[in-house]
Amino acid sequence: MEALKEPGQGVIARFSNLKGLTIPVAPHKGCGSSGGSGKSSCGSSAGSGDLPSEIWEKVKNHPCYSEEAHHHYARMHVAVAPACNIQCNYCNRKYDCANESRPGVVSERLTPEQAAKKVLAVASEIPQMTVLGIAGPGDPLANPDKTFQTFDFVFKAAPDIKLCLSTNGLALPDYVERIKDFKVDHVTITINMVDPEVGARIYPWVFFRHKRYTGKDAAKLLTERQLEGLEMLTQAGILCKVNSVMIPGINDDHLVEVNKAVKSRGAFLHNIMPLISSPEHGTVFGLSGQRGPSAQELKALQDKCEGEMNMMRHCRQCRADAVGLLGEDRGAEFTTERIESMEVEYDAAKRRSYRDSVEIEREVRKAAREQELLTLAGENSDRKILVAVATKGGGKVNEHFGHAKEFQIYELSVAGSKFVGHRRVDLYCQGGYGEEDALAGVIRAINDCVAVFVAKIGGCPKEELRKAGIEPVDQYAYGYIETATISYYRSYLERLKNGELVDIERGDAMIRQGAFIELSAPAGQAA
Amino acid sequence: MSYKIVASQCTGCSACEPECPNKAISEKDGIFLIDPKKCTECIGFFDEPQCVAVCPVDHTCIIDKSLPRYQK
Ligand code: SF4
Ligand code: SF4
């Protein structure tokens, strides 16, 4: 873990450099556009090319921060922090929170000792696991002793595991020193507003220094503490990501302001997530009928904020106790009882050799992508299309249509193939709902795509997809996603030219409501 | 009087426990209890009862009217 041994001096230099720059931001140009070196400060989706090497070192194996890495590496969260110090209208502390990595009270809660043992057990069995995060179920910094004790155990036993934490930021300025001491090098702050007027509609209260604050006072305090904490962290060379929940009618337009505020304070990544809300969650927003954004609304906002700062689009709003590759929840394999009875042997060598093989694989994939990109050199169409891909990792088209729990969405243009997000879908193959309903659900979720790439697909869904104007594509089974999609795009342009295809605008798509479900849970809405 | 926790409402989040200036709050089987002998309603420490102020569920930490008022 190079990044842990040297707590990022290079990054300090980087950010102080940025501070000295005057970044011209036109008031009505979305999230600011700047020339020159600004661009290189905040990349994440394009791989190493976009990032200064010190930051790339820190994020390259981090599935939450690097779009490229999330195909190969995994993180886990342990639920050691039950208490919270603020109240959010999208959260009901009696139940698992669907918006952030907060599994509420019904989920297993661990002591720091149990958590550390679980981490080592998982790391030994799943060499992909490179990141340990503490995100809840409450706020890690409202439970500082439990949080830092867990980090301490893990850091001593397995120094190759990166540590990160997610916080609402209220207590953050008080703990920056400890975060530094424990060599935590990634922090995520959830910032939904920088204006107390907006904040008062999201946060009913905060608890700070023995007092409960409400309304605008609460929001003002929260935003001041969040931004102060963010600045302190970036000055200390600790990578900061900002999460924002997009709440239509409340903070959707305002998030452009938030983007500017966090960017100017050195956040390297901004992740805008859709509000997930339904009455069964019992949250204030769920009960008031506050809707979440549609896929197009979300993408439009992310595009507006992209500018010089890359947006994170692969976040799956996973649960805090999730284990496994992002989106693939193996938590059920590592229950407390099983861990208690386990003999844990931490095999550092096995883990290193896995990482080496992944690095080779990534090089091969990169070379294949570059090769394929060359074939687009002569094209000059301004046509952009979206396609959906069924994948279970490794950057390949390798999932059966009927087994896909989610689809990755790529935007194809003459510039190449760009990952723009993912869509969760209910398991089409599992019972609980009629097959037709399930298929209709999948179609709604990827309705803005012209094609869906799969390893395999049955005749019946194929027909239905075609009827809905989505082309099922299985000839690239087990190929690399980028290579497959670029090749498809080339033939798409070809077919447009010779009249085989008629270009029609695709409609909008739905964002699935409800928490991400585990394999053992019944398909359908997770309440 | 003392404060008490409505067990059926408590999420077991533990937020109240470290806030109590009298160490009156403890856990039993995942939910939290207030020891009425130790609770001073936060009088002499804070303007508002800390357990009430931090609890995420409204009307969960409530005054126990069956007990006499706390006397300093
Ligand atoms: S009212 Fe104050 S003293 Fe009594 S239990 Fe609550 S926090 Fe403790
Ligand atoms: S703060 Fe409220 S919900 Fe949390 S443990 Fe205390 S009484 Fe229970």
Overview of the molecule:
The complex is a heterodimer of chains A (527) and B (72). Chain A contains 16 helices and 15 strands. By secondary structure, chain A is α/β, with parallel strands linked by helices. In chain A, the strands form three sheets. In chain A, strands 9-8-5-4-3-1-10 form a seven-stranded mixed beta sheet. Chain A has a five-stranded mixed beta sheet with strand order 13-12-11-14-15. The longest helix of chain A is centred in the last third of the chain and has 27 residues, at 348-374. The two termini of chain A are 39 Å apart. Chain B has 72 residues and is mainly β. Chain B has one domain (2-64): Alpha-Beta Plaits (2-Layer Sandwich), CATH 3.30.70. In chain B, 7% of the residues lie in helices and 22% in strands. Chain B contains one helix and four strands; from the N terminus they run βββαβ. Chain B has one helix at 50-54; strands at residues 2-5, 25-28, 31-34, 61-64. In chain B, a hairpin with a 2-residue loop joins strand 2 and strand 3. Chain B is globular, with a radius of gyration of 11 Å. The model of chain B has no long low-confidence stretch (mean pLDDT 89). At the A-B interface, loops of A face helix 1 of B. The complex binds iron/sulfur cluster (SF4) (2 copies). Residues 5, 10-16, 32, 54-57, 60-61 of chain B line the site of one iron/sulfur cluster (SF4). One iron/sulfur cluster (SF4) is lined by residues 5, 10-16, 32, 54-57, 60-61 of chain B.
